[in-house]
């Protein structure tokens, strides 16, 4: 029986190349995890003062609110994560970070030019590529206006809205706060990203809601 060599079959070579490219993309492609928090300085009875959405590769799969202190799974990925032992740890982390962010909002409220309740929208972001953390940052929006960006990789601040300059100086002087942001985004966020990627790579192409930040 005649043996067929791969080198004599362009179709086989093309299929092999496609499989190698897919495997390479899975191993070294960039993946991201994003936690979006919305914090209110004042909320009505029965309404949460903290809400959070969690996105893996810009796809929404978890929601949290402070009213019931529970995380709601969304889609197939959310259900898979819900079945793991990390679910309780994630719920605790979201609650603690929400409370810490609300304390920050209450501390800076005197510097915010508004007479009514204030809101703080926060995006905690981390990215992995080639099996290492390649990005970690925090973005802050005050009353809907994007105001500050903190790069946790090199510990630098960027003022987006000049009205937040004093807030930036206050936070920049607090080395403990900067280390806290770095630990959460470069440490904890990266840890969760690695945990969730194992479930993500085994799933079909997602079609859920995507992050707009």
UniProtKB/TrEMBL annotation:
<keyword id="KW-0732">Signal</keyword>
<comment type="similarity">
    <text>Belongs to the MHC class I family.</text>
</comment>
<dbReference type="InterPro" id="IPR037055">
    <property type="entry name" value="MHC_I-like_Ag-recog_sf"/>
</dbReference>
<dbReference type="GO" id="GO:0006955">
    <property type="term" value="P:immune response"/>
</dbReference>
<keyword id="KW-1015">Disulfide bond</keyword>
<dbReference type="Pfam" id="PF00129">
    <property type="entry name" value="MHC_I"/>
</dbReference>
<dbReference type="InterPro" id="IPR050208">
    <property type="entry name" value="MHC_class-I_related"/>
</dbReference>
<feature type="domain" description="MHC class I-like antigen recognition-like">
    <location>
        <begin position="30"/>
        <end position="197"/>
    </location>
</feature>
<dbReference type="GO" id="GO:0046703">
    <property type="term" value="F:natural killer cell lectin-like receptor binding"/>
</dbReference>
<dbReference type="GO" id="GO:0002476">
    <property type="term" value="P:antigen processing and presentation of endogenous peptide antigen via MHC class Ib"/>
</dbReference>
<dbReference type="GO" id="GO:0002486">
    <property type="term" value="P:antigen processing and presentation of endogenous peptide antigen via MHC class I via ER pathway, TAP-independent"/>
</dbReference>
<comment type="function">
    <text>Binds and activates the KLRK1/NKG2D receptor, mediating natural killer cell cytotoxicity.</text>
</comment>
<dbReference type="InterPro" id="IPR011161">
    <property type="entry name" value="MHC_I-like_Ag-recog"/>
</dbReference>
<dbReference type="GO" id="GO:0009897">
    <property type="term" value="C:external side of plasma membrane"/>
</dbReference>
<dbReference type="InterPro" id="IPR011162">
    <property type="entry name" value="MHC_I/II-like_Ag-recog"/>
</dbReference>
<feature type="signal peptide">
    <location>
        <begin position="1"/>
        <end position="30"/>
    </location>
</feature>
<dbReference type="GO" id="GO:0005615">
    <property type="term" value="C:extracellular space"/>
</dbReference>
<keyword id="KW-0472">Membrane</keyword>
<keyword id="KW-0325">Glycoprotein</keyword>
<protein>
    <submittedName>
        <fullName>RAET1E isoform 2</fullName>
    </submittedName>
</protein>
<dbReference type="GO" id="GO:0001916">
    <property type="term" value="P:positive regulation of T cell mediated cytotoxicity"/>
</dbReference>
């Amino acid at each position: 029986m005649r043996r067929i060599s791969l080198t004599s079959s362009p179709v086989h070579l093309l299929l092999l190349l496609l499989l190698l490219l897919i495997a390479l993309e899975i191993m070294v492609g960039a993946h991201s995890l994003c936690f979006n928090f919305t914090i209110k300085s004042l909320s009505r009875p029965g309404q949460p003062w903290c809400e959070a959405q969690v996105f893996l590769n810009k796809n929404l799969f978890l929601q949290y609110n402070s009213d019931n202190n529970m995380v709601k799974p969304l889609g197939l990925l959310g259900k898979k994560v819900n079945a793991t032992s990390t679910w309780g740890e994630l719920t605790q982390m979201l609650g603690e970070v929400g409370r810490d962010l609300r304390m920050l909002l209450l501390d800076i409220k005197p510097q915010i030019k508004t007479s009514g309740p204030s809101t703080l929208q926060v995006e905690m972001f981390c990215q992995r590529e080639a099996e290492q953390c390649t990005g970690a940052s925090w973005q802050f929006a005050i009353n809907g206006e994007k105001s500050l960006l903190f790069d946790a990789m090199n510990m630098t601040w960027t003022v987006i809205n000049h009205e937040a300059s004093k807030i930036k100086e206050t936070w920049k002087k607090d080395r403990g706060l900067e280390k806290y942001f770095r630990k959460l985004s470069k440490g904890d966020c990266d840890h969760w990203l690695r945990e969730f990627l194992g479930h993500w790579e085994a799933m079909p192409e997602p079609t859920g809601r995507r992050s707009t930040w």
